[in-house]
Amino acid sequence: MENLDVMVLRTLRDWRKAGKRALLATVVRTWGSSPRPIGSIMALAEDGAVVGSVSGGCIEDDLIYRHTQAYAAQEPGHQIPSGPPGFVKYGVTADEAHRFGLPCGGTLELLLEYDPDAASLNALVQALESGRLVRRTVLLADGSVTLEDAQAPEELTLDGTRLVNTFGPEYRMLLIGAGQLTEYLATMALFSGFAVTVCDPREEYRGAWSVAGAMVVSDMPDDVVTAFRPDRRSCVVALTHDPKLDDLALMEALRTEAFYVGAIGSRRNNEARHQRMIEHFGLTAADLQRLRGPIGIFIGSKTPSEIAVSIMAEILAVKNGVVLPRDMEVAQAKNLRAVQPNDPGLVCATR
Length: 351
Description:
Layout: H1 4-17, E1 22-31, E2 41-45, E3 50-52, H2 58-72, E4 86-90, H3 94-99, E5 107-114, H4 118-129, E6 134-139, E7 145-149, E8 157-158, E9 162-167, E10 172-176, H5 180-191, E11 195-199, H6 203-206, E12 215-217, H7 221-228, E13 234-238, H8 243-254, E14 260-263, H9 267-281, E15 291-292, H10 304-319, H11 330-337
Parallel strand pairs: 10-11, 10-13, 11-12, 13-14, 14-15
Antiparallel strand pairs: 1-2, 1-5, 2-3, 4-5, 6-7, 6-9, 8-9
InterPro entries: MoCofactor_Util/Proc, XdhC_CoxI, XdhC_Rossmann_dom
Protein name: XdhC family protein
Organism: Ramlibacter agri
């Protein structure tokens, strides 16, 4: 599954290029609890087709009803929505919050852009598809839009004259090794909106790969990392347990802005990896501070599917800026619980 924002904008562009009336809804303010964060977007076509989300569903239903009725002119007093952007607020009262499925005390405000320009949408989508980070500015007076490259992700801003929202290319994940654990993790990453690349020079592993939607390459991992050019929306995860494949790739990844760099393995293997990198590759303890391992959060898992859940949870937490309690780290949790698997073969795999 691709990045949701890109999907929304691409669909909206296609509707407008086909001559359909449509609107773009953006969550611009929230009070109390909110189902969707500020900056979330949704597109709605005149025939009721919708892509994206601004709530848990009830607000979408209300927007669909109100605007399809207006487009169809089936009810007196309904006018075809047009003109400059407008605001709509949901959950102002407790009754309304309950009606629209908002949490207790939750209120959100949307900015509705009517019939966004197809050419501007096309330029934005093409920029995102080429891997650029784009700042989109909407003037509230007339709905005119300007686009410019951004250097870093920014929070949505709204003042009396304009809305500024930054859109980035989809998040990317590079996985080293094409084993069973990688298949589970790649599947979870794909439905979480990541573009997934899997690298494994071992033909016997690539030949058994079965996850559609992930790109599989056969070059040496360190070369793949260099070509991948990880940025702030990228993560690199080594899953082979083979130092010949993992170590150089991890070293290359640590030189980039990747938001997450980590490797599978036990506490002992992780310590050995650090030691190798210091002794043989000249890295320092400071260089290795960003290297995560053992990766994942501690949920007592032992099977590949459960281990993948723990790894994906940690990656998403880091992506979303959530600092996890230290006792959720695998190494810390095992140290506290003195977990020692009886089967040595499970040491590398146990979360």
